[in-house]
User: Which sequence fits this backbone?
């Protein structure tokens, strides 16, 4: 028995004449957990000892061949036998082994197939080595066997991209020997017979000499360092592949060490947290239950947001009725949707046929009454409560009973919006992120009265749109924008007190963000923050130091960022350069406020910014706006460009530790005790030594 899983439950063998069949049956994805490794090793050795069979055929039950190592075992003490050892036994088997691939043979799963002596794939199958996406490298022979079978360049491409290779390509590259149709067991029997009658040739990969080209390896290494400077595992992948010119035993040792090096990094833990987190957000009771059918969607508002939402629905094959108040607005909306779809075609994300089908499913209309037959309406108009309430009042009168009424508001109170209808149970928030047809995050906001089936339908829609739906409760800004408002203030304080916008951006880009906060603001439009500051001016907390003066002055000049050609940066000649006039504005504001600029190190900038993010993220978990820390993490990975290899703000917080964070916050509080306050939840965690990961486990 291994970890409560019986070996006999996951590996079975049967013999028929000269043929031995081994079946792996470890749902859901036949991962090579401890029991599978023990079972496979014993099966190979028992069949060889018995000496009756002349060929072994290995296949998997269920929906797929194996998806590789059981990722849940990583980070725990390793259990023998290791997968590389088992696969060496497979390769050394005196009786030839043929593998039958169906579904997706990924990572250690594909490595099993590479260690067998012939590979037959069932039509539609895919193979791949996605370890790099988990901060790892193929550690069970993939870096040694794939270049031997398919050449250096192909191996580097597959290992560094982590992509799933269609079986036709795998056949062309000689990675699989043939592609057939049929059920895995039938194909396994047929393949075994072909080995016996000599129509399917077997070969030992370890006896093939790998093609080797130092120049290709050097150029690849330089490329990964340039493209992914923060990531540890891509360079290790190249290092391991570079050992494929050694005798295989030595090459495997280099691979093993490189794999263990990757295993030790926090990046591996962050990326695996991201893998499971993406699935965990919808693995909750609220997302399950019965749903309402959504076959036709209404989108109100043809601006950037509404058009992006409509594009996303159309790409998913959902007909959309787009509503605008005036003909020119409607025309602009249709033009934006067409542009979005054309962009998806040129990026290779959509076929021309699907683009044409999507356009055919779009019905523009100036009549709100035309929404009487849709199953879901998504309102995406200005962020003004009275406008939204007016629309929802009308929708209540127009829409059929049972239709779901959603608002794409980024911060307004869904419950108040729902009061303008007689059906608050049908109302929820569906907060998309711009550009809505590209960004994968969807905050699903539960109102006080939102029906359980309405909420579950929100999750079903997210899945259909291939988005990551995260449950959020009502508050100003929900999960993401509420946290952003808090750490955005920290960035503003850093500039007010001594850092330059460029230094803040550089420090955070070095930390792993694709863009620093000032570049992001320039991209989003500085007028958006300006409007929000004006809107909140009356309710601003007088005890809180105001930090908007610099941004206000930039906006007063009409500089709204990229769209006006200047903001914190100038955009005249392509690559952004610091706007020299902003430095003058900063000096003037500091002088007027009597601030003597301080020197901040890049490390200090990152620490303050990240601590501010963690503080508000902790509060969002504490007050239940987010269900668990992992929900906050996924909001940031999929909606805010947070570096995936750091797992999300609260996963990152665990790498610092609650006690160290409390100490940090108390240190900053000496400068500004109003802004820097320790959340109770963090103080409690510091006292009892618990972590955000513990809270995830509690659910
Ligand atoms: C590796 O192999 C290292 C080796 O080189 C060396 C070793 C020494 N382990 O995605 P789904 C779970 S590294 C454990 O929703 P789909 C998943 O969490 C590994 N669990 O289904 C989910 O659980 P739940 C390299 C796994 O049909 C359920 O299975 N391999 C694993 O949309 C269904 O998954 C990879 O990186 C796993 N390996 O997609 C492949 N995989 O139901 C990772 C999945 O509780 N897996 N689960 O939420 C995938 O890419 C997709 O799961 C796959 C199926 C395409 C297979």
Assistant:
């Amino acid at each position: 028995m291994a970890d409560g899983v019986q070996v006999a439950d996951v590996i079975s063998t049967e013999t028929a004449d000269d043929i031995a069949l081994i079946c792996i049956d470890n749902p859901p994805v036949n991962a090579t957990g401890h029991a599978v490794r023990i079972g496979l090793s014993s099966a190979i050795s028992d069949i060889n000892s018995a000496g009756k069979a002349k060929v072994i055929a290995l296949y998997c039950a269920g929906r797929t061949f194996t998806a590789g190592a059981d990722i849940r075992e990583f980070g725990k003490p390793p259990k023998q036998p290791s997968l590389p050892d088992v696969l060496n036994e497979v390769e050394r088997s005196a009786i030839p082994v043929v593998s039958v691939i169906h579904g997706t043979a990924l990572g250690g799963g594909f490595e099993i197939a590479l260690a067998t002596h012939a590979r037959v794939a069932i039509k539609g199958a895919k193979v791949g080595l996605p370890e790099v996406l988990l901060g790892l490298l193929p550690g069970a022979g993939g870096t040694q066997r794939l270049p031997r079978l398919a050449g250096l360049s192909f191996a580097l491409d597959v290992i560094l991209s982590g992509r799933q290779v269609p079986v036709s390509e795998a056949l062309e590259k000689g990675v699989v020997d043939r592609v057939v149709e049929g059920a895995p067991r039938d194909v396994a029997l047929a393949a075994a017979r072909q080995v016996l009658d000599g129509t399917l040739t077997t070969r030992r990969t370890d006896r093939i000499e790998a093609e080797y080209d130092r120049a290709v390896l050097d150029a690849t290494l330089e490329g990964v360092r340039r493209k992914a400077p923060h990531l540890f595992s891509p360079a290790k992948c190249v290092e391991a592949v570079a050992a494929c010119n050694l005798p295989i035993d030595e090459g495997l040792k280099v691979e093993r060490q490189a794999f263990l090096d990757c295993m030790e990094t926090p990046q591996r833990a962050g990326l695996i947290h991201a893998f499971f987190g993406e699935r965990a957000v919808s693995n909750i009771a609220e997302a399950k239950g019965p749903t309402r059918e959504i076959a036709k969607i209404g989108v109100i508002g043809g601006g950037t947001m509404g058009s992006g939402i409509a594009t996303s629905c159309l790409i998913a094959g959902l007909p959309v009725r787009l509503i605008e108040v005036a003909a020119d607005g409607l025309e602009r909306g249709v033009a934006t949707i067409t542009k979005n779809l054309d962009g998806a075609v040129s990026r290779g994300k959509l076929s021309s046929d699907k683009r044409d089908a999507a356009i055919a499913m779009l019905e523009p209309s100036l009549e709100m009454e035309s929404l009487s037959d849709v199953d879901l309406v998504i309102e995406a108009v200005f962020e003004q409560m009275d406008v939204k309430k007016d629309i929802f009042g009308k929708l209540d009168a127009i829409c059929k009973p049972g239709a779901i009424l959603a608002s794409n508001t980024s911060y307004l109170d869904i419950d108040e919006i729902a009061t303008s209808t007689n059906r608050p149970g049908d109302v929820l928030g569906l907060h998309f992120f711009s550009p809505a047809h590209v960004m994968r995050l969807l905050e699903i906001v539960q109102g006080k009265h939102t029906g359980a089936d309405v909420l579950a339908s929100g999750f079903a829609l997210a899945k259909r749109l291939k988005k990551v739906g995260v449950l959020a409760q009502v508050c100003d800004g929900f999960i993401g924008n509420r946290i952003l408002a808090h750490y955005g203030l920290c960035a503003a304080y850093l500039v007010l007190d001594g850092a330059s916008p460029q230094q803040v951006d550089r420090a955070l880009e070095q930390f792993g963000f694709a863009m620093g906060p000032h570049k992001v603001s320039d991209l989003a439009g500085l007028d958006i923050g300006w409007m929000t500051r004006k809107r909140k001016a009356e309710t601003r907390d007088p005890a809180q130091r105001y930090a908007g003066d610099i941004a206000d002055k930039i906006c007063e000049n009409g500089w709204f960022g990229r769209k006006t050609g200047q903001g914190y940066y100038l955009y005249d000649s392509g690559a952004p350069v610091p706007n020299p006039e902003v430095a003058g504005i900063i000096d003037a504001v500091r002088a007027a406020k009597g601030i003597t600029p301080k020197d901040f190190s890049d490390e200090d900038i990152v620490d303050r910014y990240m601590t501010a993010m963690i503080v508000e993220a902790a509060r969002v978990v504490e007050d239940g706006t987010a269900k668990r820390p992992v929900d906050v993490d996924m909001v940031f990975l999929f909606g805010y460009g947070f570096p995936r290899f750091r797992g999300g703000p609260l996963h990152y917080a665990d790498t610092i530790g609650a006690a160290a964070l409390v100490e940090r916050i108390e240190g900053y509080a000496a400068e500004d005790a109003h802004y820097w306050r320790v959340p109770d939840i963090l103080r409690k965690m510091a006292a009892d030594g618990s972590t955000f990961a513990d809270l995830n486990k509690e659910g």
Notes: Residues 28-29, 31, 64, 67-72, 83-84, 104, 106-108, 111, 130-131, 134, 136, 138-140, 142, 276, 279, 283 surround (S)-3-Hydroxyhexanoyl-CoA (CB under 6 Å). The chain has 30 helices and 19 strands.
